[in-house]
Amino acid sequence: MTDPLLALRPWEAPEVTSWGRLPMNTVDRRAGALSLDGPWRFQLLPAPDAPVGAVWSSTRVPGAWTMQDTDDLPQYTNIRMPYTEFPPRSPADNPTGVYEREVEVPAEWSGRRIVLQVGAAESVLLVHVDGRPVGLSKDSHLAAEFDLTGVVRAGQRAAVRLTVVKWSDASHIEDQDQWWHGGITRSVLLYATDPLHLADVAVRARRDGELRVDCRVRDAAGALPGGWYVTGELDGLPLAQDTALDRAHEEDGRVSDFLGEVRLRTVVRAVRPWSAETPELYGLTVRLHRADGTVSDTARYRVGFRDVEVVGRDLLVNGERVFVRGVNRHDFHPLTGRTVSPEDMRADLVLLKRFGFNAIRTAHYPNDPALYDLADELGLYVVDEADIESHDHAHEIADDPRYLNAFVDRVSRMVLRDKNHPCVIVWSLGNESDYGAHHDAAAGWVRRHDPTRPVQYEGAAKRGWADPDVASDIACPMYAPLEDCLAHALSGRQTKPLIQCEYSHAMGNSNGTLADHWAAIEATPGLQGGFIWEFWDHGILQRVSDGRPAGRGGAGLYDNGVTAPGHRWAYGGDFGEPYHDGAFVADGVVFPDRTPKPVLYEHRELAAPVRLRCFRHEGLVLANHQHFRGLEWLAAEWELSLADGGTLTAPAELPSLRPGETAVVPLPFELPADGGEAWLTLRVTTAEDLPWAPRGTEVCAPQLRLRAAVPAKEEPAVAAAVEVDGDGLLVHPLLTAAPTLSLWRAPTDNDELGGIATRWRSWGLDALVRRPLSVHRDGVSVTVVAEYAGPTGVVRHRQVLTPVEGGLRIDEEAELPEEFDDVARVGSVFATVAGLDLLEWFGQGPWESYPDRSAGAPVGHHSLPVDALFTPYLRPQESGGRHGVRRFTLTAPDATGLAVTLDEPRQVSVTRYRAEDLTAVAHHDELVPRDGCVVHLDAAHRGLGTASCGPDTFVSYLVAPGVHRWSWTLRVL
Ligand code: IPT
Question: Which atom of ligand 1 is nearest to the CA of 950?
Fold first, then answer.
């Protein structure tokens, strides 16, 4: 007998979005639900219409089969589909998972309405119970519910079969930039309600305290029984029923026997409004009663009172033009793929809060429901995005009528699910799907159903940032050059808030110019922020021996971004995929194990709630840079870093300031009269335990320079010998490679994908050939002139080595030809003997910083083991730099070693790798650290930019041709 669900061939029928699926609603937390998570019988068929065999294995639900023990492994493609079939077709090889298990339906569910909920399945779900077809669903990131009343019997067993087809017409609109998986990725459960039940509850809570709760009631038996009523309470106080609404409905005859509607209301006096800074929540309980007063159904919500509106070119939350410090976040885990636990999501959001983020775009589909509860609780604004990305076939699909239903279905189901969350401030129609009538249809539905939130869609906004007719209330470009954003905001033609849906691409060593962006955003009305791309490096933990995902067994096999021996972070191509997009999937601000990358410290500082504005003779100007709260939640300590002394601390009293206010506070230290450079830092921490940070967690460390450095006097030469070899290379007891000129860095992902690395290679910067031209002794100094030649240009380099008290001064000069107009660096590189494993420096730190990513690294005395300086970006590249270094020592445990003093604050890196070590391998675990240190001192170092996807660094951060001079002293300790 042909199965009717299969006979439809629903995997190639975009018109079919569901069958037998219950409408989406907000009432899903019924007490007594039965979890069906855990082991299920499992078969992976080669195609949906292949016969189910007799041999079963076992698999775990929730979980993608691509991350468990099957031969269908994860595959990464960005834009292109992993197969050539055009929409709505899918390939003949179409892995299809058949999941089966028995369920004991509780005897006490007799007479009740029984519902099966499948949290998420990709990409087509077919449901059979006891061999009978029950329903089907598409949309891989939203739950599907099926009414099993009359299909299963209370007190008896039922066999549930869930068939999941991997490739379908729906895959063409789920073409997001991430790994392809297959399986059931969120929890499955069975629950029961009374036949008389809450079908949906919609909550509207405004910042003036007005609460409106619209309840819809159904009875499974059909017509509603007489006498039912609904009550509600907010934090224990009863809500009033809005009888006016009932009457109005009766008058126009809209109250039917099948669907009851009730509106409850109240006005909360002295309401505490919800915002990301003040995530105040109230507990709402809605109860549906039978005529005899007994409760037939209950729903609970946490309500946040807040308003969102677009007024002119401002997006206002509670009337305030808030800055949107956002990040794009996928549901991701290195062991389970797309299955994420509430604990993991809490850890994600806690980390975002600690690093100053206040917003998430759920790129590019509705995230796990727990995320919204957490964002409500912890305080994060959410741009909730529908599961639509048709990137590879965007143009065809946006106006292909066969897909119209799917677009409206996906957008509307997201809104129906998430509408009660205060965290959701904007609905997004999806990502990278061109712009067609389907988007207008979906936007129309949203605007009618939920007029309380704006709608955005990048594909529509692209038609014209100020175009009033497109399906986007926000100008939400991606990777727009800052100058274009500024020009728009200053043009007088701006009509909508400008908030980039993606910017500052975090691939590898990246996020250059973030500080420039924020300086412009904070200074320019009309610019309101954006969402960094993205939170995660999607590296999957992989066993190198058999190339398989480590899966859940891999827990504990990574630490601090680094994997255990025999394991690596896999990216595109590592599972043998024929088509893939390489390391482009590793472009997050955290490593796959959630270890923060250095950019996060930069971001934390740029988001600082407390700022030190300037230093005036009567004191310091301290500003509250928040939108809604004072500084009471913060504690602080002053720190004075003296270049020629140590670090002093003093307690700080934060003034009482309302949002936006400033106060002048007295200078907490007397500056020693004879010192040089002096820096004042305010270390700001949490004053009490918060849900996202224990007391004492650092929040920001704004800093001011109190006094500039006194220019160093040239040290007099002393009578001592400088030893150089026949090629003019310094011979020194602590150096295993003499200082030579370096113009090269191991290309970052930005350098590679932005194209500059290709130019560097064409100039031969990675293999310049040094030819000594002259070695000349002049008194005690030795002057060495050498040429560094590439195929297209020659750099002349002069090094003057002069003995000074206790060491050696090295004055260098390099003259770059005009054609070398944009090199990676100009500086010296040398290698040290083994055993010098501690770096102590005065300069910016302690974390990695580069010329265009150095706003979050305060100047001070820092110290780190050499092995901790390097950042293990998934694809090895230039890493570990420290900006603005004035001097440093590299020492062994007995404090012997070397000391370097630089003429000016310079870019320095101390690692175990030469640039060629880093370029030779594709994964971090393949690197073999050297015993000694590789030290770079740069007169100039190119900014990082974001050119792997978006603008390159600014001209001011480029290294110009012409003459560069730098000098440094080297002493033995
Ligand atoms: C943009 C995508 O929206 C996002 O999913 C991701 O691919 C990002 O770029 C790059 O990592 S689209 C790009 C073509 C600008």
Answer: 15
